[in-house]
């Protein structure tokens, strides 16, 4: 079970996925209602952020690696191509998912429904990950040892922030943080919660504990695996096919790990996450569900506008050389 980092809250789902050229897939985004909202940003400027997505992703990658000019050119071309693919081939599916969530929310969304939508979101995430794998391989094949060390250092910095935010020394404080974060994000999606609702969420979380230290260890495992992939590709000078195979293997075991113990522990946390999401929806009143439904409606409208813009952009792109 994972919470989004601050950067993920500033960008839409697709931007976050293309940043995942280096960053983990960010599956299991949010303990509670994030299962329903991780598709989009925590703001209304969906179209603006999406249209800047390639630049934001390139900035993120450069910030973590320190790209050479040749690598920067590779990333620019790859992101332009992948964002165009996503705009023309994937946005319609995202809009349909959001509309389906909205319809269910207006009626009675169940834990089974939430699990279905969560699975749909994960499927979309993995589709993107495998789509960008060839370009990930090309980038990784070009890395210097100093650039891999840059990634390692940035990971360490991010881990310090994670520990500071999520892992107070006392277990009771860790539970308190989890409760506060869940309430904050529930209110972002549903609007203001009552004191009674807050107490119910608190009781549910206490009754269904999560060891954040295990989540942190899983985070480290994914990071270490990624560094090993980068290092093996560069040290052994793997070719394109070999590099793609190694990256694909990393993606395959990214979420649940390789061992039976890792897989069982992650699936258990996933089940708790789905239970919390279902519980938050269950205790939301009609006005709060209406508030959430209006948010979803606005996102769908923005996505449909992006889809309509594609025909105009397509004409412009076809007029450019090498298109």
Molecular structure report:
By secondary structure, the chain is mainly α. The protein has one domain (6-318). The chain has 15 helices and no strands. The longest helix is centred in the last third of the chain and has 33 residues, at 286-318. The radius of gyration is 20 Å and the shape is globular. The N and C termini lie far apart (42 Å).
Low-confidence stretches: 1-44
Question: How many separate structural domains?
Answer: 1
Q: What amount of the residues lies in strands?
A: under 5%
Major β-sheet annotation: none
Sum up the overall morphology in one term.
Answer: globular
| Rg, nearest Å | 20 Å
Count of runs of 4 or more consecutive helical residues? 15
- Roughly how many Å apart are the termini? 42 Å
Structural class: mainly alpha
| Percent in helix | over 70%
- For the secondary structure, the number of strands is 0
Mean pLDDT: 84
- What is the H/E order? HHHHHHHHHHHHHHH
Descriptive labels:
mainly alpha, globular, single chain, 78% helix, 15 helices, disordered N terminus, 323 residues
Quick overview of this protein structure:
The chain is mainly α.
Please outline the helices and strands.
Blueprint: H1 6-9, H2 13-19, H3 34-37, H4 46-51, H5 53-65, H6 69-89, H7 91-106, H8 111-141, H9 145-166, H10 171-190, H11 195-207, H12 212-235, H13 240-254, H14 260-283, H15 286-318
Helix pairs in contact: 2-5, 5-6, 6-8, 7-15, 8-13, 9-12, 10-11, 11-14, 12-13
């Amino acid at each position: 079970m994972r919470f989004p980092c601050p950067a993920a809250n500033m960008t839409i789902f697709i931007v976050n996925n293309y940043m995942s050229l280096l960053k983990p897939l960010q599956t299991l985004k949010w303990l509670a209602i994030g299962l329903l909202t991780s598709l989009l940003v925590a703001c209304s400027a969906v179209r603006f952020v999406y249209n800047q997505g390639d630049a934001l992703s390139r900035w993120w990658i450069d910030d973590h690696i320190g790209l050479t000019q040749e690598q920067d050119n590779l990333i620019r071309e790859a992101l332009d191509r992948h964002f165009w693919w996503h705009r023309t081939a994937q946005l319609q599916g995202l809009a349909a998912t959001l509309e389906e969530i909205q319809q269910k929310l207006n009626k009675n969304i169940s834990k089974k429904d939430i699990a279905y939508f969560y699975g749909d979101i994960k499927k979309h995430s993995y589709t993107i990950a495998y789509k960008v794998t060839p370009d990930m391989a090309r980038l990784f094949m070009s890395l210097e040892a100093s650039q891999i060390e840059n990634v390692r250092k940035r990971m360490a910095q991010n881990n310090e922030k994670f520990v500071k935010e999520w892992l107070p020394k006392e277990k009771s404080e860790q539970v308190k943080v989890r409760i506060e974060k869940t309430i904050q994000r529930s209110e972002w999606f549903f609007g203001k919660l009552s004191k009674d609702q807050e107490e119910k969420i608190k009781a549910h979380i206490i009754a269904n504990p999560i060891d954040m230290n295990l989540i942190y260890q899983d985070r480290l495992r994914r990071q270490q695996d990624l560094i090993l992939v980068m290092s093996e590709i560069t040290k052994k000078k793997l070719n394109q096919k070999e590099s793609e195979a190694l990256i694909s293997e990393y993606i395959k075991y990214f979420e649940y790990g390789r061992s039976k113990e890792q897989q069982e522990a992650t699936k258990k946390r996933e089940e708790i996450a789905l239970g919390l999401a279902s519980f938050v929806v269950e205790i939301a009143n009609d006005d709060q569900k209406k508030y959430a439904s209006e948010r979803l409606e606005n996102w769908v409208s923005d996505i449909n506008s992006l889809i309509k813009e594609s025909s105009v952009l397509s004409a412009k792109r076809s007029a450019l050389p090498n298109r």
